[in-house]
Amino acid sequence: MEKIDEILVSEKLPIKEVMKTIDNIGLGIAIIVDESSRLKGTVTDGDIRRAIMRGVDVNSKISLVMNKNPFKIKGEINQEKILEELKKNSRNFPDYYMLKIPVLDEEDRVVDIFIESGREGGFKFSRKEEKIPKPVEKILVVGGAGYLGSILCRKLVSRGYKVKVLDLLMFGEEPILSVKNNPNFEFIHGDMRDITTLTKTLKGVDAVILLAAIVGDPASQNQPTSTIETNYFATMTLAQACKYHQINRFIFASTCSVYGLSDQILDENAELNPVSLYARSKIESEKGILSLVDENFSPTILRMGTLYGLSPRMRFDLVVNIFAMKALLEKKITVFGGDQWRPLLNVEDAAEAFIKCIKAPIKDIRGQVFNVGSNEQNYQIKALGQIVKATLPETEVIITNRDMIDGKEDARDYNVSFDKIRTVLGFTPQKTVQESIIEISQAIQTKKIANVKDAQYYNNR
Fold first, then answer.
1. Paired residues of 268 in beta bridges
2. Where do the domains of the chain lie?
3. For residue range 118-152, what is the model confidence (pLDDT) as tens digits?
4. CB-based burial of residue 54 (10 Å sphere; 0-12 exposed, 13-18 middle, 19+ buried)?
5. If you classify domain 4-130 with CATH, what class do you get?
6. Yes or no: is domain 138-457 CATH 3.40.50.720?
7. Residues 6+ apart with CB under 8 A from 261
């Protein structure tokens, strides 16, 4: 943003309209002015969300919740002047903070804005148009102790985000132990189906990533009630709560399984053809979430390929992981059918896709659906078998009939296009099936994974 006018809003505007400006600009603040551009106050996205938590109506005027005495400065600005004003006003800040400072002329008209940050007494100083801080600071990851979540949370914390996790710990606490004591990590043990717990977790967050679900066709088949409650009803409750609390960024983990069966290459506009309760539950959630889109709520749907690879919460009910484990320990793998296509995606790369969405401009992701993966990792199952054999040469590959799901032949067969996410978000997976097979084999051989038959490694237990 180069023009200060873009973040100046009238004191007569409703809260909801001001939040739209804050989200679109991405600075986390709006400057409230009168008709002559004279400063009346400032308001941050955090100010608005705390007010909503207190029950303030989003249609109320912004003057009701704005800070009427913000830190401001007149005339030419420099580091010495900032320090002098801070001391004069007895402002106390933590070791690391960031101020967005309105700059006024002699008639109190807003003419500029500066970003000022300090860490342990030091200062980094820049003009607004030269440096825009990341708009998202604190992220709620629902299901953050799972297969994907435990990796995503580590990546977010390592990149300076504050992370809050809501998780039932169905598979134990071990996946988050290494990050649990990090000062930028907060854990809440609870069920997303509990509305009281769900609402409490939204306090203070700027974005929500929903990973929690009954995942996979067999697990959904065996837990149909929990699948509907979690994958649809709880999902919609959370999305609606985010919209109400003006949490604009909501990223939903969906699946390429929604395509089910097709002989076409499928982009995001392709017909959906689910063959399982799991896929149907994701489709209904996608529809419900996208129906909530407006200028103040910008959900994003990520349809992921079939995941694979090492994770702190390992899974051995995913095709590449199963093949790697069986090839190592049993020296043989069974390929059911083999002609059917699957798009594959390493779990590390999947986490990067969510981070891409967190960092992307709102306009690029509002109401968008992205297939997540790469065109190069669309594989027929029999080709996967050959990759395993090439990587672990002692492996015998046995071809048999297709697996059975819901008493029927496994009908899933889909080849997916990932052009959109590469073009819009610049997402390109880095990990390969071959290197992941080696990593999994080494983890088993070194006893990093002690007992591959342990129930914690299987969603359908």
1. none
2. 4-130, 138-457
3. 444 444 444 444 444 457 899 999 999 999 999 99
4. exposed
5. alpha beta
6. yes
7. 273, 275, 411, 412, 413, 414
